[in-house]
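Ticket #4471: structure output looks truncated?

Reporter: J.K.
Steps to reproduce: submitted the chain below (255 residues) through the standard prediction queue, then opened the result file.
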Amino acid sequence: MTDELPVRIVDGRVVRAPGVGPVAMVWLPVDGQVISKIPPRKGNRHWLHETVGIRSPEFDDDRWKLPRSSLVRLVTAAIDRYGFIVLWRDMSRLSQCTRACLEATGVECQCSCLGAHHGQDAAGWFERVGDAVVADRGEFTRTAVVYGARGSDADAVVYEGKLAGERYRVDRAGRRDWPAAAQFMCASCMTVRAAVWDHCHTHGFVRAPLCNRCNTRYWQGWRPQQGRATHSRNFDDSYYRWCPEHSSVRRRCSA
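Returned output as attached by the reporter:
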């Protein structure tokens, strides 16, 4: 793992590069519920319920206890929201890494690769960033893997509303025909390649592809040291128009 990576795990701690916003963390124990620690923000319960599709998110102290079946949706939605997510896995039994592992569409893994190759050949919506960090816990092995949005090798083009009118989805079936956000330039600053799909939290429609900095620019003010973009950037909020309900006076589009 190199220093150039935007999010690294060093001595068990998550280290973010300058300009990288808050990162969500998820712990997948051997059995039981998924434990998620997401950056504090107004509307987290609503986001988990409406966007991730969890009927009754359970909040305990500073973390969320969520159904194991929601893991893939949670990772997909969290990457769109934060840019990156750290997934900690506890594994009790290790088996040989097979084609089923390489082509997996989920994020659970019990293979000898410790999650390093899990799903790397699948056409998913997120991919591993950096190497898997491994720790021997005696009865089980704990791994930590950073996931980010799947990139694209194609030249980025200007977004022209390919997903206009589409409801925002985080399940694999719902995104089957979606292009990767990285195929487009960021619809806000128009200076870098996009990374995630932005959507209107009020009406639930996809709006446009954004880079991670533009996607988090409204969080905690405009302080660059927290990964926020500055006023001097060439912001353009006209991409809001891709929400079909943008002109609604009663329920205005949300950031």
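Triage note (M.O.): checked the attachment and the full token line is present. The CA atoms of residues 52 and 74 lie 6 Å apart.
Status: closed, working as intended.
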